[in-house]
Amino acid sequence: MKLLHFVLFYILYDITGAKANMDAILNAMKQCNDKFPVSQEEMEKLMHEVHDDVSDNFKCHIKCIMELEETFENGTFVDENFVKEVMEVPLLKDHQADIKTATDECKKQHGLNDCDTAYEIAMCIYGRLPEELATGLLSML
Q1: Distance between CA atoms of 72 and 5, rounded to whole angstroms?
Q2: Least enclosed by CB within 10 Å: which of 60, 65, 84, 139?
Q3: Residue 4 carries which DSSP code?
Q4: Where does the UniProt annotation place the signal sequence (predicted)?
Q5: Could you list the pLDDT tens digit for every one of the 141 residues in the chain?
Q6: For 65, left (φ over 0), alpha (ψ -120 to 50), or beta?
Q7: Crossing angle of helices 15-35/56-68, nearest 10°?
Q8: Residue 13: inside a domain, yes or no?
Q9: Running DSSP on this structure, what letter comes out for residue 125?
């Protein structure tokens, strides 16, 4: 995701913290995939920036991960938590301004339901990041 997911992936500064955090992220992804299975085909479409015909399961999968990472609560994007978590990723520290700007521009996105809202926010942020940063985030999925 991209993010998203989201998203979706925070590494702490020291090696021990990084391993524990990566384990938590992988656990979150497994939990969410158990609840909202996403096909390999759908993940590949995202990696090739094909965002049409995205399944509800995929959108809910993103929302699930965001909830477990405490960046989406009660139908609301918690932008402070998102920025804080992303800034802990060593590769992203030099892009704080880009991430903050994208977050500020996208945090008010709203979809038809909570899953759609989480997906819209994630894709909005992804679409506003510099290409090399977005590609790096996507490769972490």
Answers
A1: 11
A2: 139
A3: B
A4: 1-20
A5: 433 333 333 322 222 234 445 677 778 878 898 999 988 787 777 666 656 678 899 899 989 988 988 899 999 999 998 888 777 777 677 888 888 898 999 999 999 999 999 999 988 888 887 776 665 555 444
A6: alpha
A7: 140
A8: no
A9: H
Task: Please report, as a single letter, which amino acid is at residue 92.
Answer: L
Q: Which two tokens stand for residue 48?
A: 């090739």
Is 6 domain-assigned? Answer: no
First to last CA, the chain: 6
Domain total of the chain: 1
Print the SS3 string covering 71-118.
Answer: CEECCEECHHHHHHHHHCCHHHHHHHHHHHHHHHHHCCCCCCCHHHHH
80: domain CATH number is 1.10.238.20
**Residue 129 in domain:** yes
Write 84-92 long-range contacts (CB < 8 A, 24+).
85/10, 86/10, 88/10, 88/11, 88/12, 88/13, 88/21, 89/9, 89/10, 89/11, 90/11, 90/13, 91/11, 91/136, 92/133, 92/136, 92/137
Domain that holds residue 78: 20-139
